[in-house]
Amino acid sequence: MRSRPKTGWTDMQANENQTSEALQVEVVKTTWAEWSRRHCHWIAALLALPAIAGVVGNITSQFWWVSDLTTHFQWQAVLYSFAVLIIALLGNNRFVAAMVFVSLLWHGSFVAPMYWGGHRLPPKTPTGQFKAMTFNVYAGKRDSEQVDALIQQELPDVLCVEELTTHWHRHIKEHFAHHVAIPNDGAFGGGIYSPHELADVQEIYLSDQNTSLQATLQLPEGPVTVIVVHCFPCVSADGTQLRDRQIKAIQEHVASLEGPVLVMGDFNASPWTAPMRSLITETQLHSSLRGAGPQCSWPAGNLLLRTPIDHVFGSPELAFRNRRVGPACGSDHLPVIVDCIFSKPRRD
Predict the structure, then answer these.
(1) Is the domain of 59 the same as that of 134?
(2) What is residue 29's predicted lDDT score, i.e. its pLDDT?
(3) What is the residue-averaged pLDDT of the chain?
(4) Averaged pLDDT for residues 134-144
(5) Looking at residue 272, which CATH number applies to its domain?
(6) 155 and 37 housed in the same domain
(7) Which residue from 97, 128, 203, 219 lies 20 to 30 Å from 210 (Cα-Cα)?
């Protein structure tokens, strides 16, 4: 006589095995969750230090040249603070999350306004529009093919060139009927080039190491005063002080001008530095970056460190549209191109 299978006992064993496996999975999940939370907690605390240091650097930027450097990287600080905030929340580190949120708001307050405030203009302006371009071509570069192609493609009505050497001047002047230039085989030569007449040329003294050029661009719609600028790089305490004095000199000079004014060049300063903010508040100039976002122009070869130090500023008589950075042309800077529109009558 055969015995009946012990189905009840077998089912009980199977249930116990499943329960044991489920408990093991739950333990693994709990262990992983606890490990992740604990490590995210401390990782966030460590990563928060640079974010907070960036805020402190911004606040003290007028007193120490190293702090001034931190003001150049606001959009990077926004992304960094946001990433650390996520890690802090995953680690349930509320204190660090609050601190990093303050950093996010601080740096975001500099970047966000650049996305609004531009001039609201019709899509096309048939008259009263001209194209401006500024480009630090890099004095050490000699291959001009990419720059030649850029000029032929964009056909700017006015081009301001920084780090203009005699080599660069020979090549660039071939594209334009009119030019004024101070070539320099160092790093501070400058020039203004245009298919239109350039009148009333003068040099603007910025420092013993540097001068700027000014010329009146004779457009069919009326004259525009154009100034090309190249300030000293902020690579030391002395260099930063010299750059600040040069920006101050430009500020005082522009305040004395009448009529439409266009100031272009390599300022070696982001729009968030103290002297650049002063340039805006103490003159009637406005930046072409307003409404365009922080279009960064240097260094051309490193997107993560790129910052906007090449600028186009205009007086109230001029509005900007379609600001963009051009392609890499062998320089450590990217060219900046913008369409300019006569938006207001000339100042008295």
Answers:
(1) no
(2) 46
(3) 86
(4) 90
(5) 3.60.10.10
(6) no
(7) 219
Residue 19 has a CB neighbour count (10 Å cut-off) of: 10
Rounded Cα distance between 331 and 53, Å, is 31
Half-sphere CA count of 8, side-chain side, radius 13 A: 1
Helix, strand, coil % in the chain, rounded to nearest 5: 45, 25, 35
Higher pLDDT, 21 or 63: 63
Least confident of 8-17, 35-44, 103-112, 164-173: 8-17
Indicate whether 219 and 152 sit together in one domain.
yes
Which domain, by its residues, includes 200? 119-342
CA angle 167, 168, 171 (to 5 degrees): 95
Q: How many domains does the chain have?
A: 2
Alpha-carbon span 333 to 299, nearest angstrom: 6
Given this model, what pLDDT does residue 121 score?
Answer: 56
Helices 7-59, 74-90: inter-axial angle, 10-degree rounding: 150
The predicted model gives 285-294 an average pLDDT of 91
Which of 40-49, 81-90, 328-337 bottoms out in mean pLDDT, i.e. has the lowest? 40-49
CA 281 remoteness from chain centre: 19
On whether both 171 and 251 belong to a single domain, the answer is yes
Average pLDDT estimate for 23-50: 64
Contact of 328 with 114, CB cutoff 8 Å: no
Domain-located, residue 215: yes
2 in a structural domain: no
Token pair in block for residue 297: 């122009």
Same domain, 138 and 103: no
- Within 183-258, strands assigned E span 190-194, 198-207, 210-219, 222-230
Token code pair at residue 55: 């805020």
